[in-house]
TrEMBL record:
It catalyses: ATP-dependent breakage, passage and rejoining of double-stranded DNA. Residues 270-293 are annotated as: Disordered. Its EC number is 5.6.2.2. GO terms for molecular function: ATP binding; DNA binding; DNA negative supercoiling activity. It comes from Spiroplasma endosymbiont of Drosophila neotestacea. Belongs to the type II topoisomerase GyrB family. This is DNA topoisomerase (ATP-hydrolyzing).
Length: 341
């Protein structure tokens, strides 16, 4: 991130406060060193101060959005519990401060504002394969999944291995619990992953060592670190599985919602298949028996249909009809005489 900002800035000034010393280095014109790294003083503070000016040769309009920056900083504060971040806009004399001591738990509360929750917030945390994993989730009465994922505080909008591990672990745990409790019978298929995530709000945050971090593509939108999948899946399987066991009422609520989602999905699939089959048969005989001999004219207002007794009568009628506007439908059995009935 800083290297990109440096490349796009006419001025990039850095002061580093570390080990009781203050260090200073300055770049300009897209990364050229204007002042080499120099010790300029002593301090009891730690941290880094960066001052930069976007290059006007590259950016014709330079306007920082307070709203965009504020949202990103709030996100960072959620991901790093106990860290206070202050944003000041000197253009409008405006300041906001973010501090979330409960981190992802407060993030879930923020995301689910206005929704009706059906479970408490579930927190999972651990270290696997040198990767720090933190997951928070909650179910609501909503029908859509709302999932955010991060790797080293960078939003992975395209998901990646950590998301795959989360979904795999979640689905496995729910299916295992449902079978153990008899909510899924032996003959029943497992719940689909999409069924188990209906109404789910979840946040996945992993901290991966630099030696292991891999992204797919140049934008860091998708995590490619293979071990992240296993790390997240192990923690979710253990800790969410334990939570289901300890919270039977909520566990049943989650599974009942998933079963309903599966039923709706199956009904929708059957309806789509029926619609496709009807389309193949054509509009003319969509709702009628396959014995119908339709008229060629598609304008039903100009057509007529003859109901005849049996296939033999139907054969004669077909020979004598005007196929342009006359249809023949043989009936099975003897037709009741309406006048005598």
């Amino acid at each position: 991130g800083s290297s990109v900002v440096n490349a796009l800035s006419s001025v990039f000034d850095v002061k580093i406060y570390r080990d009781t010393k203050i260090w200073h280095i300055k770049f300009g014109n897209g990364g050229q060193v204007k002042q080499p790294l120099t010790e300029i003083g002593t301090t009891n503070e730690t941290g880094t101060t960066i001052t930069f000016l976007p290059d006007s040769k590259i950016f014709k309009v330079i306007d920082f959005s307070f709203t965009t920056i504020s949202e990103r900083i709030r996100e960072s504060a959620f991901l790093n519990s106990g860290v206070k971040i202050t944003l000041t806009d000197e253009r409008a004399d405006k300041t906001v401060e973010y501090l979330f001591n409960n981190g992802l738990e407060e993030f879930i509360t923020y995301m689910n504002e206005g929704k009706k929750s059906i479970t408490t917030i579930v927190m999972m945390k651990g270290l696997e394969k040198e990767i720090e994993v933190e997951v928070a989730l909650q179910y609501s009465t909503e029908f859509n999944e709302n999932l955010l994922s991060f790797a080293n505080n960078v939003k992975t909008s395209e998901g990646g291995s950590h998301v795959v591990g989360f979904r795999s672990g979640l689905t496995k745990v729910i299916n295992d619990y449902a079978r153990k409790e008899g909510l899924l019978k032996e003959k029943d298929k497992n719940l689909d992953s999409t069924d188990t995530r209906e109404g789910l709000t979840a946040i996945i945050s992993v901290k991966v060592p630099e030696s292991l971090i891999q992204y797919e593509g140049q934008t860091k939108g998708k995590l490619g670190t293979y071990d992240a999948r296993a790390a997240v899946e192990i923690i979710v399987t253990k800790q969410f599985g334990f939570w289901l066991t300890e919270n039977k009422t909520s566990a049943y609520t989650i599974i009942e919602k998933a079963l309903l989602a599966r039923n709706v999905r199956e009904e929708a699939r059957k309806a789509r298949e029926a619609a496709r089959n009807n389309k193949k048969r054509g509009n003319s005989d969509r709702l009628l028996t396959g014995k119908l001999t339709p008229a060629q004219n598609r304008n039903k207002l100009n057509n007529e249909i003859f109901l005849v007794e049996g296939d033999s009568a139907g054969g004669s009628a077909k020979l004598g009809r005007d196929r342009r506007f006359q249809a023949i439908l043989p009936l099975r059995g003897k037709v009741i005489n309406a006048e005598k009935a």
